[in-house]
Amino acid sequence: MSRTFKSAGERVSSYEDDFKDVWAVLTGDSVWVEHFRNNLPIAWKAAPHQFHFLNANDFARQGRKDTLGITDKMTGNITLLDISSNGAQFAAMGAALHELVHLVSAPANQGKKIIIFEALGEGLMEGLTQVVTEDILAKQHIEPWTEHKYSARASIVRSLIALFKDGVGMFGRALFLGRGSELSPLPQRFGRQGFDDIKTAATMHDLSVIKKIGKP
Ligand SMILES: [Zn+2]
């Protein structure tokens, strides 16, 4: 029987069942799922069906000291930071779900960096991935996990989504279909330089940019 998560802080490990159970949350109810539904069978086929683990030292050695996971979009491998203190190799379910959102982002068959990465920059892309993660959890009444480092980035993306009537559709098609043109209302609204400044602020976790983004 598959597991029902109550909190995104629950532990997941390298068992195939854990991968399957987090996958079931990803594919469950959310406002975003319609935008990545077609990617699901493709990503499932292309990816190894278990999470891999690295300890903090090994992550840092790869220059990734601020991250809880890495999804290799070339291979579909997902490596999570082992948050145990004794090498027991587990991570929070919320961190694993965030990585699965990367996995189903375009291209769903892997083999290439996330298509929308250049258009959004690291900060907005990670923020958007975290917004999708948080929305899936909220819709399914799973308590959020607060120890990730993306809350400022997610808030900045939420303020951008709120500017547009079809904000979810716009960002969903950009991330999951790889359609950069969906994002053209952003430089139109802020100017190219203004939008670049927002991208930079998001990468720097600089919440003050939300004032500049303004209200719809
Ligand atoms: Zn990420």
Structure description:
With 216 residues, the protein is mainly alpha-helical. The protein folds into two domains: 11-104, no CATH class; 117-213, no CATH class. It has helices at 16-26, 33-36, 40-46, 56-61, 93-104, 117-139, 151-161, 167-177, 185-203, 209-213, and strands at residues 11-12, 52-54, 69-71, 78-81, 91-92. It has a three-stranded mixed β-sheet. Strand 3 (69-71) and strand 4 (78-81) form a beta hairpin. The longest helix has 23 residues, at 117-139. The protein is globular. The protein starts with 10 loop residues before the first strand and ends with a helix. The model has no long low-confidence stretch (mean pLDDT 94).
Give start-end ranges of low-pLDDT stretches: none
Domain unit count: 2
Strand order of the largest sheet: 2-4-3
Bound molecules: zinc ion
Relative strand content: 5-15%
Element-by-element helix/strand order? EHHHEHEEEHHHHHH
Mean pLDDT: 94
Number of strands: 5
Give the radius of gyration.
Answer: 17 Å
**N- to C-terminal separation?**
45 Å
Shape label: globular
Proportion in helices: 40-55%
Count of helices?
10
| Largest β sheet strand count, sense and barrel closure | 3 strands, mixed
